[in-house]
Structure formats: C-alpha cells, structure tokens
Design a protein that fits this description.
The chain folds into two domains: 173 residues, no CATH class; 69 residues, no CATH class. The two termini are 21 Å apart. The chain is 72% helix and 0% strand. Helix 2 packs across helix 4.
Length: 254
C-alpha cells in the first residue's frame, strides 16, 4: 500500500484563518446551490403548496388555514420554495460538507466522496419524506383529534408550516446519524465497542432529544422522532464496526 494512503493530510498545514476561509467558501457555495435550486422550486410552487397543505386542510373543519399578517400570502410561497430548494440542493450541500472535512481524512478515504454524498443524500431524503408522509400527518391528525369540542381550532398557516418545516428538516438531519458516526469513527473519536457499551445512555439521550426536538410536544410526535433514532443508532453501530480504524498489527522481527 502506498505511503500516501496511510497518512492523512496534516491539519497543521492549515491555519485557523485558513479553516475559517474554507468554511466561508463552503457556505458561499451552499448558498449559490440553494439559490439555483430555488429557481426550479419556484417554477412548481403551486404544486408544492398543494402537496404540503393537503394533509393540513384535510382535518380542519373550515378547510382553510388562518392568515393574520399582511405578508402571509407572500411568505408562505417563499418558505415553501426555500424548503424545496434545500431538498433539491441537498447533494451539493452535502458535497460541500465533504470538502470541508476531507482535509482531515486519509488520502484513500478522500476517494469516498461519491459514496458519502450518495449515502448522506439518500438518508436525508428518506428522513425528509418520512417527516412529510408519516410523522407530520400522524402528529397533525393527533392534534386535530385532541382538540376539545368547545375550541374552534383554526391554526395559522405560520404555526402549521413551522411544525411541518421542523419535522421534515429535523428528521432529514436525524437520518444523518450513520454518516456522522462514520466520520467520527474515521477520526477515531468513537468505536463500535464504545457505542455498544453506552447503549443504555444513548437510549436515554435519544428520548430526551426526541422530547426537546419534537415540534409537537405530544407523545405521538415524540415517538415518531425517537423510534427512527433508535433504529439509526443500531445501524450506526454496524457502520462503526465495518469502517472503524483497525489497530495496527505488530509484526515480530525475524
């Protein structure tokens, strides 16, 4: 094996200001990607809004969401378009993440850019779709059924879309857990043994995170956050076991 494959690029070669400049560059490219994707998103904004608001309106007696501000009609278009733009641009955004962390990896590991981007994009889209198709609908229907008969429950579009946005993006990020564990494993920060040993603490932390991060403070939405996190943690153990750094085998001198 070539020596270049066994030695990472020394982080010391980049100063603190160099790292900040690299971060600024990656953020700038991310913004450009989202702006370009926004052009595509706004071309289909009416279809997007129809798909997003359908489950919201289906359970409301009035069949409409309440707008209370003068700019609400414009803001709902803007926020929905921005959300879809982020989803469309997610492969390019994750590519910028890879470029930022790549200098600390081994030369051989840097060749995993395509698998990293494909895997992390697939996980993000899966999490976002889970939030859109299952988590949000279950939470929204639960809130509608929980509504007492003496209350005229007419949510504003701002509160409804904020709940939807946080669930879609939140679950998209949560589904990145195996990728995060892969990076931490390659940097030698965690290992499969460490994850297994601390499994009970991980379950406790996951339940706390689900209770705090879940936009709807109800048991249904909290479990919809906690259940995928538990499954992803188990998958992450397998990722750490497969890709964890192996201790070098000492060879006896002849």
């Amino acid at each position: 094996m070539e020596e270049d494959d066994l030695t990472p690029d020394a982080p010391g070669r980049m100063s603190f200001l160099d790292h900040l400049d690299e971060l600024r560059r990656r953020i700038l490219y991310t913004v450009y990607s989202v702006l370009a994707a926004g052009i595509v998103a706004f071309a289909f904004i009416n279809r997007i809004l129809e798909e997003v608001t359908r489950p919201m309106l289906a359970v409301l007696p009035s069949g409409t969401l309440l707008g209370t501000e003068a700019l609400d009609p414009i803001m709902i278009y803007f926020k929905a378009g921005l959300l879809v733009a982020v989803i469309i641009a997610s492969p390019l955004i994750l590519l910028q993440v890879w470029y930022f962390i790549a200098p600390g990896l081994y030369s051989k590991e840097k060749r995993m850019a395509v698998p990293f981007v494909l895997t992390s994009t697939a996980l993000f889209l899966t999490g976002a779709y889970f939030g859109h198709a299952i988590a949000f609908r279950v939470t929204w229907e639960f809130l509608a059924k929980f509504n007492p008969p003496y209350m005229n429950w007419t949510p504003t579009w701002t509160s409804a879309f904020s709940l939807y946005l946080r669930m879609v993006l939140g679950l998209g990020l949560i589904f990145q857990m195996p990728v995060v564990i892969f990076v931490l494993t390659r940097f030698g920060i965690v290992s499969a043994k460490f994850l297994i040993k601390n499994f009970k603490y991980a379950v406790l932390i996951i339940l706390i995170v689900a209770a705090v991060a879940s936009p709807g403070q109800d048991p249904a939405s909290q479990m919809l956050f906690a259940a995928p996190m538990l499954v992803l943690y188990v998958i992450s153990i397998g990722v750490a076991w497969l890709f964890g750094k192996k201790k070098p085998v000492e060879t006896a001198e002849l």
